[in-house]
Write a structure and sequence with these properties.
single chain; about 375 residues; alpha+beta; conserved putative lor/sdh protein from methanococcus maripaludis s2 fold; Elongation Factor Tu (Ef-tu), domain 3; OB fold (Dihydrolipoamide Acetyltransferase, E2P); 7-stranded antiparallel beta sheet; 4-stranded antiparallel beta sheet
Length: about 375
């Protein structure tokens, strides 16, 4: 069992003695409590600054889904917040203008077939000296012209977003499908805005949906004008919001100060595989901007508070003693000690909370016994 003694221990200066609680642990108990020991000494103390920021959609993976011809909405398949796959059907429009374009292409294909048949006939007749060279050349020129007309009609369809495979299969489509214009997802992502309803008449380039790939997001941090010289691309930053925390690097620093805010922008591209980081969330970005040497630096996990006093557990011959300390400065995970701990002493860098709990439990037990 863990033992607690009140032992006479020499003070830090060695001039007197005072009564202090000591926690005795066996080696097995130390391992069970996760006690980690380190030697106090100088270290590099990071200087950190915190900047406010906001999660934004990655605009390189963001798209407005718009029809390229006017039409009436006949079907809507995608819902707000739904995840869509690249090429997936989001809505279907019925378009009279599209019918004219598709029909023009099909007519051009038919004319090529007729011109090809005529050319082949004239070619055979010319080879047999039945047809004149003039008639043969005219047939060949007509075929070339009709093929140019097909390519022109194909370009119109491609400009509307139709694939090569779709265009090749178009002659096999039914007449009723000639009026239909599909709105498809440009990439795999999430529908973040929807501006479309059944029966609605849409003009060309009307915004129907907004799709964003949220597998990664932008974090735009506001950097104060006075700190612009401290922030640069490649610096490590810890992004936090509530319980969420992620470590990454700055990918871009905008070299212009906002006229109204008097701040610059530092951007982090943050992986978001689980969707925890939501566009619009306010966050903080913690950046180490400098470092300086300090006589004694310990991890923040070493610091405990007992009866309102900051202490660090020190290992002595008697056991583990809670040593009152004065903190000079601290950052997110380091503490610089001004007084209470001297270089060369062995202290508890992790597991101090378990010692504190044992100390408090033993004191309560002692109080009940009294």
């Amino acid at each position: 069992p863990t033992n607690l003694d009140r032992t006479a221990v020499a003070s830090e200066s060695g001039d007197d003695e005072r009564q202090q609680d000591v926690v005795h642990l066996t080696a097995a108990e130390s391992e069970e409590f996760g006690i980690v020991l380190e030697t106090a000494g100088p270290g590099e103390m990071r200087v950190e600054k915190t900047y406010p920021g906001e999660i934004r959609v990655n605009e390189d993976r963001y798209a407005h889904v718009t029809p390229r011809v006017p039409g009436v909405v006949r079907s809507v398949y995608a819902s707000l917040g739904e995840r869509v796959q690249v090429g997936g059907m989001m809505a279907v429009l019925e378009s009279r203008e599209l019918t004219d374009i598709k029909s023009g292409y099909l007519a051009a294909v038919e004319r090529v077939d007729l011109a090809l048949a005529n050319f082949q006939r004239e070619e055979r007749l010319f080879e047999k000296k039945i047809s004149s060279e003039q008639e043969y050349l005219e047939a060949r020129q007509t075929l070339a012209q009709k093929r140019i007309e097909v390519r022109s009609a194909e370009q119109k369809l491609r400009a509307l977003g139709f694939s090569e495979a779709y265009i090749e299969e178009l002659p096999e489509e039914s007449e009723t499908s000639l009026t239909l214009y599909p709105l498809t997802a440009p990439f795999t992502g999430t529908v973040i805005e929807k501006h479309i309803a059944l029966g609605e008449a849409l003009e060309a380039d009307t915004e129907a949906f907004e799709v964003a790939d949220l597998s990664d997001v932008w974090v735009d941090l506001s950097v104060y004008q006075r700190d612009m010289g401290l922030i640069q691309e490649g610096q490590e930053v810890v992004i936090s919001a509530g319980d969420h925390q992620e470590r990454d690097t700055i990918s871009y620093v905008r070299p212009i100060v906002g006229e109204n805010t008097r701040t610059a922008m530092a951007r982090v591209v943050l992986p978001n595989p689980h969707g925890r980081w939501k566009p619009g969330m306010f966050v903080n970005g913690l950046i180490s901007v400098d470092a300086r040497e300090a006589p004694i630096v310990v991890p923040k996990s070493a610091l405990q508070t007992i009866n309102g006093q900051s202490v660090i557990f020190v290992r002595t011959e008697e056991g583990f003693i809670p040593r009152p300390v004065t903190v000079a400065e601290e950052n997110s995970d380091q503490v610089s000690i001004a007084t209470g701990l001297t270089q060369g002493e062995t202290y508890v860098s992790a597991g101090g909370f378990a010692l504190k709990s044992e100390l408090q439990k033993s004191e309560l037990s002692a109080g009940d016994a009294d």
